[in-house]
Amino acid sequence: MSGHLQDNLTDTDGLQTIGDWLRWTYSRFNEHDLFFGHGSDNSWDEACYLILQALELPWDFDQSLYGCRLTAIESAHLQSLVRRRIEDRVPTAYLLNKAWFCELPFYVDERVLVPRSPIAELIQNGFQPWMGNVQVDRVLDLCTGSGCIGIGCAQTYPEAQVDLLDLSPDALEVARINIDRFELWDRVQTVESNLFSALESEEEKPQYQIIVTNPPYVDAEDMTDLPNEYHHEPELGLAAGNDGLDLARTILREARNYLTDDGILVMEVGNSCFALDEAFPNVPFTWLEFEQGGHGVCLLTAAELDQYRESFA
């Protein structure tokens, strides 16, 4: 570490107010080659995210109060967080053990990916227009991680039962923390499962109106090029073979077995969307567009999964 970096991150004696810390953090983030992809996409938003959330202040905190002075303990805490963000490249969500999804605060740590899926917008829109007037009784969140997608669905559909499936026992521990946080144990359950395997053993296969999944989808080339921030995330939640479709193929092949006739499958594959189109050139995937940004999320109806079943076999 250079002396210049060390000095910049320790010379904080003159920082007294919230505004001082926001400006200083913004400047430090601009000086260093950070990657922003875990909740913000620029230095200013990241600085606001870290400082305001670390101080337990709301996003819309009145800027006229930026002149409020911090205690010595608060200042020391902020300095430690900023240093870890810069020196160790720890994503801010892990530093705070908090990530926002569907406008809800979720507990996260390095056992799960940081929630950032554009599927949040789809959940908040009630999966319209595709669901129409369909009564949603059951939702499956496959590869749930922190549980954010399934819990978001539970909030959108307050009468629905939601199953959170994941291969990782560590991830499911985090998901249970979030179920507790939102007091949803009466409607939301976790199941350890390698994709659909735990459901296959049930005497009667459960049927869902919505199967939504954000599985691992990073291909081998992209895995080697990931920014340092992503190396704090579990590789199990990212890597998906040479073309990023190892899990997507299985999901497409088996999902129809667990969908109602009026159901939909929503699957995120990120940059592997091009590989998916190439692998199944005759399948007309609906690629969703998002007002708030994001890409690589496809949708298929149960009827479409029936129609192209042979392609996925």
Give a short summary of the structure.
The protein is built from 14 helices and nine strands. With about 325 residues, it is of the alpha/beta class.
**Helical coverage, percent range:** 25-40%
CATH topology of the largest domain: Rossmann fold
Elements, N to C (H/E): HHHHHEEHEHEHEHEHHEHEEHH
Give the total of domains. 2
Describe the largest sheet: 7 strands, mixed
Report mean pLDDT, rounded to a whole number: 93
Per CATH, the architecture of the largest domain is: 3-Layer(aba) Sandwich
Pick out the low-confidence regions: none
Q: What is the CATH C-level name of the largest domain?
A: Alpha Beta
Estimated radius of gyration = 21 Å
CATH superfamily of the largest domain: Vaccinia Virus protein VP39
- Strand order, largest beta sheet: 5-4-3-6-7-9-8
Rough shape?
elongated
Number of strands: 9
Textual characterization of the structure:
This protein has 313 residues and is an alpha/beta fold. The chain folds into 2 domains: 3-96, no CATH class; 110-312, Rossmann fold (3-Layer(aba) Sandwich). It is built from 14 helices and 9 strands. The strands form 2 sheets. The protein has a 7-stranded mixed beta sheet. Strands 1-2 form a two-stranded antiparallel ribbon. Helix 7 links the parallel strand 3 and strand 4 (161-166). The model has no long low-confidence stretch (mean pLDDT 93).
List the helices and strands and how they pair.
Elements: H1 3-10, H2 18-31, H3 43-54, H4 72-87, H5 92-96, E1 99-101, E2 104-106, H6 119-124, E3 138-142, H7 148-156, E4 161-166, H8 169-181, E5 188-192, H9 197-200, E6 208-213, H10 220-224, H11 246-254, E7 259-268, H12 273-279, E8 286-287, E9 297-301, H13 302-307, H14 309-312
Helix pairs in contact: 2-3, 2-4
